[in-house]
User: What shape does this take?
Amino acid sequence: MVKNNSKSEVNMNLNANHYRFLDACSEQFPNQVEFSKSTVRKICDTAGIPFPSWLIRKPQFKAGYGTYSIESVVSSNYCEPVAPVVQNVQTVESVPVPVANIGMNVLDENISVIPSIMDNYVPFGHFKDLKSILKSGVFFPVFITGLSGNGKTLMVEQICAKLKKELFRVNITIETDEDDLIGSNTLINGNIVFKEGPVLKAMRKGAVLLLDEVDLASNKIMCLQSILEGGGYLIKKTGEFVKPADGFTVVATANTKGKGSEDGRFIGTNILNEAFLERFAICLEQEYPPVTTEKKIVKGDFAILGVNDDVFAEKLVDWADVIRKSFYEGAVDEVVSTRRLVHIAKAYSMFNDKLKSIEVCLARFDEDTKASFLDLYTKVDEGVNPLGDEIETEENDKDDFTI
Ligand SMILES: Nc1ncnc2c1ncn2[C@@H]1O[C@H](COP(=O)(O)OP(=O)(O)O)[C@@H](O)[C@H]1O
Ligand SMILES: [Mg+2]
Assistant: This one.
């Protein structure tokens, strides 16, 4: 199949672009190594990566007329063969199957997962403490709990960005299992390949592992128990024992404290195993940003969006603050999160209409809540007309929307 497969060419130096492409191939066509040019194009379009001109140029990848094979690079790193799968008896019987360890390939230091710095990020709350923890390089699992949209995930990302620390973020769902976290055997071109998951990658690289929304997990998350103790992990499928590199640690975020959601606000959250929760050294309770901080956040968003309206930014935050106070007193069932304020800022940059922007962003709430929140806004900002008689301007098309 591969025309020219000499050892020197097989061992070509692969860079991040190569790996992105190889990764995309194995994800979209796990059992295939030979592709036509149009399929290569489709793979790249789907994965949103550049077309690999190197694949077309280098003779080692030419498989036939208009077809290209990546076999020489996916099978150049051999590791111990693992048990054959039943449905592939023929291949396994005919030759001893060398196993290409794609996981190792993917785990290339060229692929940077250091988050980018967000210019308008405003540190607050536990930012400093968490930064000290992650900077120390000490293995110290942290559990961050707080209402949705108050900047938990962003805080972890921005600290890693500032510290230039690699971050592996895993979005946990009830379906998340050992295969998703640790890795799984994948069949590639008749070979069984152990593809490493984000947990092993983070351990090997001494990176931060972020278990985002961990309270959505089922008991399958318990496979992380030894890792949360700072120990290594024995990959049963290959027999390899992976020890965490210096700097590796775990941060989890959740809307609850892992004890379920009594008021039913966070449907899908589960009661996490006590032994699992016990492995987290500390629990940080994240509140919404203080009013002055949140005003900076919304003004920062306005500035990026090219909106010059500090008064509106301030009114929005005052309004959210009143709603949150009522929420904590039990007077209302919903809150307006920092995330929602950012949505309103974006809507305002497009519609240039305050009440319309607020209303469309409140649409996810029930009618009563929506009406009472809108009404509350008109009390906080007496400049807007509750009857919706928006002052007509060239930008404001009054036919677009009336309340
Ligand atoms: N400190 C902050 N500075 C700037 N924007 C923030 C900050 N905290 C939150 N935001 C905004 O709120 C959004 C939601 O934050 P996120 O971290 O996803 O919330 P959570 O993980 O708590 O649900 C972010 O995408 C960002 O737009
Ligand atoms: Mg989050």
